[in-house]
Amino acid sequence: MFIAMNRFKVLKDATQEFEQRWLTRESYLHELDGFIEFHMLRGPEREDHVLYSSHTVWASKAQFEAWTRSEQFRASHTRASTGSNKPLTLGHPEFEGFDVIQTIGLTAKAAE
Length: 112
Known about the structure:
four-stranded antiparallel sheet, globular, about 30% helix, alpha+beta
């Protein structure tokens, strides 16, 4: 499994607009092989921003990389940038990618 995360430092007065952009955008993730799930996370508030992270889980790093080269990726990110010209974040998102080395969960237990 592979987890891809983008961290966003959202300006305090732009959190509602930022969240609405994510909540109302079209997602094409489900169209790609290997996609498992997506989460948008709201984190701690700092002096000048609120931390957010988008978090996608993929069956493999290769399948995540295929997403980044897909038409669906381009369509998703083109539409995400439309809206007001007012900046919502401090700088660009910071990408972090992780290979999963262990998973502990209730999913297998719930299936029993």
